[in-house]
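User: what does the whole thing look like in 3D?
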Amino acid sequence: MTKTIFSRTGRRVLMPALCSLLLSLSALAQDTSDHQYTSESIQTGSRVYVQQCALCHGPQGDSIDGVNLRQGQFRTATSDEDLARIVSGGAAGGRMPAFNLRPEELNGVIAYIRAGFDPDGVAIRIGDPARGKAIYDGKGECSACHRINGSGHRTAPDLSDIGLIRTPAILEASLTNPASTLQPINRQIRLVTRTEEIIVGRRLNEDTYSVQLIDSNEQLRSLRKADLVSYELSSVPVHQPTSLNGDEIADLIGYLLTLRGLE
Amino acid sequence: MNTLRQLRTLLLGLAILLPGTQVFAQQDVSYERILNAQNEPENWLTYNGSYASQRYSTLNQITRDNVDQLELKWVFQNQVFGAWQSNPIVVDGVMYLTQRPNDVIAMDPVTGRVFWVYKHTPAENARVCCGANNRGIAILDDKVYMGTLDAHLIALDRVNGKPLWNIEVGDVNLAYSVTMAPLIVKDKVIVGVGGGEYGIRGYVVAYDAETGEEAWKFYTIPAPGEPGHESWDDEDWEHGGAPVWITGSFDPELNLTYWGVGNPGPDWNPYQRPGDNLYSDSVIALDADTGELKWHFQFTPNDGYDYDSVQVPVLVDREWHGQQRKLMLWANRNGYFYVLDRTDGEFLLGKPYVKVNWSSGLDDNGRPIPTRQPEGMPTWPGNQGATNWYPPSYSPRTGLFYFNSWEDYATIYRAEEQQYEPGRAFLGGGFTVLTPAQGAPGVGIGRTNPVNTWTDEVGHAALLAMNPETGEPAWTFDQFDVSDGGILSTATDLVFAGGREGHFHALDARTGELLWKASLGGQIAMAPVTYMVDGVQYVTVISGNAMATFALRGQE
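Assistant: Here's the predicted 3D structure for the full assembly of 819 residues, as structure tokens:
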């Protein structure tokens, strides 16, 4: 079996995903509600997080099972007071140690978590969700590949909770420069089996000996690499950079941010 | 009738006697036994299998021809969180294993059934950077020894698991810890301390194994007036890290113990601590009786990348470039493979085995030529290193040195000034894993998600079979995910190893050909070990939350 990368349009992107450049949902919420956290506090929390938390929780806050700090998914905590208690007292039967933080650091790290790991608050224009939905359903032709709450196709990632898991900056980039935000696991793949079946789809998982995908017929498939004669991996998404104008992009982002899954 | 009854009584008496003889066979584990561990390959007496730390077994029941007949004999389940890095010790029909945070379990290595469990609850303020790890016990005479997360050393009765003494190795309030399996040498039990992310001053310390009384202590950062102190500026040495958190090796002929020393602190700001920062990122050779430093070799001076040199020092006597030598083989976290003369630390060979861009090469003395990357640019290898603490293996039969490496893995470092504060993280900045897209996941410190969301584009493993003569691998075995798996090799030219995907592999030690695998489903971090009980050879490996033990089909 040969494995090749096709449709490579450019060099491998060298810059990392810097969550620090992204506007968060919580920061967005500050437009319409009281400012709960100052940007100074969030920045303090950013430093504390990198120094004290990131080794275990990971730079994206998702390295611990059942916990996704950036998305506000916790095992037991609900309130900010819960978070403060866990950080100060430890959790999970000692598997998370207690941290002896100063009050401004403790507040900061909670602010940073609540801000969706966005220390800088780069402004992304957020438009009208209703107009955005019309674009999604209409000229954007998004549902030809994507699915929301049981409606649309499944070949591209489901967007029902995209507002929870992507920042506005990432959403904008994925519309205007989709290759820059395509997560490697989501790459399109094209397989040819020993029985000459051609399978095209989106990768779901892979290990040394097998690959799992959702194919163009929306079937879940798992193939042993030993049964393949060819495995091609695309470095670009199926969809091209959008031709929508700036106002339409802002509206579409506004709509996508309202998609928060089943709560 | 009477005769029959008498016969039955006699038989019953014999049956009662038989288990008695087995108990009698569980002798104390003398130093001489450990010294001559090669004479009893049915046991796995020390962390690294022998003082030379080759993790090579002469057991030969499982061969290249029958390895595909391995079947699962038992599983021991655990409820640990994160990588389970404990190495089992097997002696005279008893296996000793640790589980998080600081439990010792004694069990039957044939069935996995437990004799006893000893639980130590570490102090609440115990602090370790990277998981509540314990990598196993050491055994000597009638005692087993465990280091703890709150920097204690505990001696237990090896038969009933009751504590005999419990001493403080380091100050838990300053984030000292012990995660390694202790090393026994003669009548001493020796440990090092962790805490390199918390501004400790590292050391290796030896205790009288009988009483727990301190025998000697060697600080891995020299104090004022001691040689090497000039490699530190001002007061930096007081909180300069240099932990020792992996079990060392011992050469009885030279009477030297060898230890890999960890990173200087703060980790990611080398500008804050100018100088070479001895003996961080070094191997040190200490007199086994006195702890006196005989020689050192520093792999990464003034390290700004967290390139702990906590790899296991592997001791090999062999012909090298036409000359019989006492060698030390070392695949370092910094991306270079080294061959040293372990009598005096002379640098013999050094070559990169992955992409390296923090240095453009090594000079004649093995000192790296630094090529620090500009701010914001990626550094290869990344923060978790080209390899790390997980134990390699050396086969005297093949002459090859086996270890798991990380390829295509880079991080972007950020240095920041940081003041030391007692007991708190002292990192001096941060790092980000290089990923091909915004918001894409980087390689985590372990695998807790069964979906490989980072993929091989962010890093993947290659098991290398390194030729020490050339510094070039004889073969490589690629994996899609990264691996923190250690290695076992055997006299039947088998190599056993796993990785984060949970595949447990048996490879041909000469060619790298895959001969057998089992999908165990959880990340494999520690190396497998092998042992024999009642004529049956077992291979056991920890995967995720379970220890899985194999033997050939039909063998019970």
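In plain terms: Chain B touches chain A through 61 residues (CB under 8 Å). Confidence is low (pLDDT under 50) at residues 12-24 of chain B.
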